[in-house]
Design a protein that fits this description.
Radius of gyration: 19 Å
Number of domains: 1
Strand content: under 5%
Number of helices: 2
Number of strands: 0
Structural class: mainly alpha
Largest sheet: none
Distance between the termini: 24 Å
């Protein structure tokens, strides 16, 4: 059985953030499919404005999260490149 290499704290945070982003995108896609697409068929211009507002909210949440978490440390010299 292979042993798992312990992750560094920034790798854990990156994994957690990626998981949250994936979930947000699933929620957003569901919203688009359930709310926006039917509206586009009925009221295309108003629905596009609604989608723009929701995209702006999503972008703001992503920006806020990025600003709240420190950037990962630079790679160590001599460390293998991914």
């Amino acid at each position: 059985m292979p042993t798992e290499v312990p992750k560094q704290p920034w790798q854990d945070r990156l994994h957690e953030t990626a998981t949250r982003v994936e979930e947000e995108l699933r929620v957003f896609a569901k919203y688009m499919n359930d709310e926006v697409v039917p509206d586009v068929r009925r009221h295309s211009s108003q629905a596009l404005k609604t989608a723009a507002v929701e995209l702006q909210k999503l972008a703001q949440r992503l920006d806020d999260e990025r600003k709240a978490s420190p950037p990962p440390p630079p790679p160590q010299p001599g460390a293998p490149q991914p």
